[in-house]
UniProtKB/TrEMBL annotation:
It comes from the Bacteria. InterPro entries: RinA, RNA_pol_sigma_r3/r4-like, WH-like_DNA-bd_sf. It comes from Lentilactobacillus parakefiri. Coiled coil: none annotated. This is Transcriptional regulator. Signal peptide: none annotated.
């Protein structure tokens, strides 16, 4: 997997816990924009952004549902811990798993997420 693709997926995962509030904020912006009579360009751009947020949220949710509990725990520890940015080695120590297992399970999850989002891997 390309580094840029991996970085993009990591960004999506890092944002996942906050996506519900992002989506709500976007929906509120669309309501305000449409009621104030501002141009359609803002509404179309916001609609595309909102649709992408919802697609990302659904893809992460589906991948988390379909994966095994160990991988789910790895992803939660790596990306959903507020304020912490752990390395794979840190996670392997914290979860008492080998670094190779952590790396393999994360890679498989990222490939599945990339496919779910229709990205070229």
């Amino acid at each position: 997997m390309k580094t840029t693709t991996l970085n993009y997926l990591e960004e999506i995962l890092t944002d996942y816990p906050k996506l519900t509030s992002y989506i709500h904020h976007c929906e509120q912006q669309m309501i305000i924009t449409s009621s104030s009579g501002q141009g359609m360009v803002n509404t179309i751009a916001t609609d595309r952004y909102l649709r992408r947020l919802k697609e990302n949220q659904q893809a992460v949710h589906d991948c988390l549902e379909q994966t095994d509990p160990e991988t789910r725990q790895i992803i939660h520890t790596l990306y959903f811990s507020p304020g912490l940015r752990l390395t794979l080695r840190d996670v392997s120590i914290q979860l008492n798993m080998s670094l190779a297992t952590i790396s393999r399970k994360r890679k498989r999850f990222m490939n599945n997420l990339g496919k779910q989002l229709g990205l070229t891997l």
